[in-house]
Write a structure and sequence with these properties.
This protein is α+β, with helices and mostly antiparallel strands. The protein has four helices and six strands, in the order H-H-E-E-E-H-E-E-E-H. The protein has one domain: 2-Layer Sandwich (Beta-Lactamase), CATH 3.30.450.40. Helix 1 runs antiparallel to helix 2 and helix 1 runs parallel beside helix 4.
């Protein structure tokens, strides 16, 4: 995955837009279009200490996730990226799509405050690695500057 190229593409999509939902929608569409071997990509936004489904690409998803619950809730509560090679081995995994086997969740911060997470699922076990983590964390910093 060429994350430098993705960063250029994302910049072109969000540079002149200030709306949070529009920018997240275009970001999820870009990742859906460019990343291989994924079956869901989208955002959960932090509202009243719960994660609520935001813009995404893929099958219908879980609408609300408690902080500390599943991979998304754990990433949000620890404020750290979670790379899970096999979601079926993750304690408390929330199965929105039974076809998902691995997952990466990246927290998003605006002015130092957690506002949500990027969630990407794959039907392939061990799909995500450290390069994906670094690349996606960088993209989320870039996106956060326009949120």
């Amino acid at each position: 995955m060429n994350y430098a190229l993705l960063a250029e593409q994302l910049q072109g999509l969000i540079a002149s837009e200030n709306d949070r939902i529009a920018n997240m929608a275009n970001c999820s569409a870009l990742l859906w279009m460019e990343m291989q071997n994924i079956n869901w990509v989208g955002f959960y936004l932090l509202k009243r200490n719960r994660l609520v489904l935001g813009p995404f690409q893929g099958k219908p998803a879980c609408t609300r996730i408690a902080m500390g619950s599943g991979v998304c809730g754990t990433a949000a509560s620890t404020k750290k990226t979670m790379v899970v090679a096999d979601v079926h081995q993750f304690p408390g995994h929330i199965a929105c799509d039974a076809a998902s086997n691995s997952e990466i969740v990246v927290p998003i911060f605006v002015a130092g405050k957690l506002i949500g997470v990027l969630d990407i699922d794959s039907p392939i076990t061990d799909r995500f690695d450290y390069r994906d983590q670094q690349g996606l964390e960088s993209l989320m910093q870039q996106l956060a500057a326009r949120l």
